[in-house]
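Can anyone check this?
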Amino acid sequence: TKVLAGHAAPAFTLRGTRGETFSLADALNKGPVVAAFFKITCPVCQFTFPFVERLYKAHSGDAVSFVGISQNDGAETTEFLGEYGITFSGLTDEEGFPVSNQYGLTTVPTVFLIAPDGRVKVSSVGFCKADLEKIAKELGDYFRKKPTCVFLPSEIVPDYKPG
């Protein structure tokens, strides 16, 4: 991605799988945003998204928005979210993937933590255990609570998987 930590996150508005409209600008007015780009056929996305879901559930009462931005159509995206137990909002990038292109994506998953000021705090490509833990720490710091334990002690999780 060309959008790295410290950069301004490009603004976007996308339609959700439940018919809602999501605007990054509106969401940032409420708090931070975790935006996770994916493709339903990507095995690393399938591996990563349940861990992002753990973060979402841990912060369900906080003023943070989690969105999965799919490079597939709405029906396929809804099926993916259901199959992997994802309950945060799914959005579909439009034909030609304008939002993915704005962010300069070359691979998925790519996950961003965007601060309310619009600056990217974490930019993570592929599955990166340390980056997901950093997102947990940043959200914990922002909401003044103990960071979420993203990975259970009993789980054997690789440090990195390329997308």
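Reply from J.R.: I decoded it. The chain has five helices and nine strands.
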